[in-house]
């Protein structure tokens, strides 16, 4: 997320307690990254909610694996699904205006013209669940503890936050280092606020199943570790009537049941063990929803288009492995993936090939570099592959018949030109003299059928390849410790990339266990381009810098691009009420509610089915 100052909303004022003498400061209820926010200071509720939605009923959801922690902010443990409902942030983004943030714990936001700081005035009514007020001390503590003891991500995300200080009874000010960074005010708005007093008697960095003190719309009601977790709506929640929240958080309880894998989870859904399911497997979507409740209309199955950026997913190389340091090898192995055949035969034609780390957005590179992109890239020409400047990136393609001999011949030529040899039908690494062996580490058996053809094609190239599928806990631990050869990796993206790119691709993050630079990229040019993205002075500069970064990532062959979907695949038991307006960036089930008449009809229909 990135920030553009909002003029004309609250006007330019001299903000007492935060502004220096003579500083021009914008005071507002919201910040936007692209023009003005959708909703003005006097808005009453979001367009896609029903402000009079009835409260009550239960929402049952599913999760895979298990959990052993109620702290989602540390590297240790597996945090319970939904635990984010317990905490709140200074600001929040609605699903129909994701490039903007609106005050939540913060009532007003102040930003100077030079972007050197941001100040938040906390709402007087903001309370922890025990009734004590949320204070500036809590906000400052949250920043400090997340940077010191939280996941590595926070150290990179808040790297340019130089100081946090109290400048009024309910006002906190964050001062920034480095060049003007239009992203930082909104980054600070995303800060989860944690209770200082609570963590003075509870060790923050240790996993715990003690229900934490929160300030959000729900609190933990019941735990069954490894099996389920239930959250109860806080009826006297301080934020209930804020315009950003009105008509949302309507369910009395939200329960997550845990299942061993997606196959068992689907069968549980069919048996009405839970209510709502977002399907992520194309074969299951095409063939797995043929059951009586669908035929009788008791379960709704729908495809909901969205406009959010899809980011990049791919078969990611672990560059910490010496074998993957050779770019030619990474390039060649991409020819072993036949996307066209896979999409037709395994995905039922549902997917689009991903060709950018910022796909489905204006940030994606295309064609040859523009003059503005070349101005950014030219100083690094001698450090970059020549294709960055001369060729439009495209992953290998096939005719979809399954015959990829032509692509494998191209791969072998690349390998031979780079000094690789095949001895006794095995591809030999010229650096070590050893046969090349690759293990695909997977978390879901559903991916085995997708990776198996790649394994077979790799074997034709002389690569000894195998698949290993492990349980979620073991997978998470191995990925945290970078203990893998290849995984399905990458990163999602917003319309306004910024500081998080350091954690995705930055050199410093490559050596931080638990960082999201799972591929282990260490490239000084990429580091420099990330800074250009972060410190872009305006939207046009941001788009140019991001496209330049995209090109360098693509031509680095750090992964084999996968695919993306431009709609959501949803299935749910017909018990919900919702408005006719769907947010452009994806479904917000927390704006739905339980419809008593539909529940009664569902019970009658289910009884007749039985």
How is this fold's topology laid out?
Blueprint: E1 12-13, E2 25-28, E3 30-32, E4 58-64, E5 88-89, E6 91-92, E7 100-103, E8 106-112, E9 117-122, H1 136-149, H2 152-157, E10 161-168, E11 171-176, H3 184-189, E12 192-193, H4 196-199, E13 218-224, E14 228-233, E15 253-259, H5 262-270, E16 276-278, H6 282-287, H7 292-295, E17 299-305, E18 312-317, H8 327-333, H9 339-345, E19 352-353, H10 371-377, H11 387-390, H12 405-417, E20 421-423, E21 426-428, E22 437-442, H13 448-460, E23 464-469, H14 472-480, E24 486-491, H15 500-505, H16 507-510, H17 524-534, H18 539-555, E25 559-561, E26 563-564, E27 567-573, E28 576-577, E29 593-594, H19 596-609
Parallel strand pairs: 4-15, 22-23
Antiparallel strand pairs: 1-2, 2-8, 3-7, 5-12, 6-7, 8-9, 9-11, 10-11, 13-14, 14-15, 16-27, 17-27, 18-24, 18-25, 19-26, 20-21, 28-29
Helix pairs in contact: 8-12, 10-18, 17-18
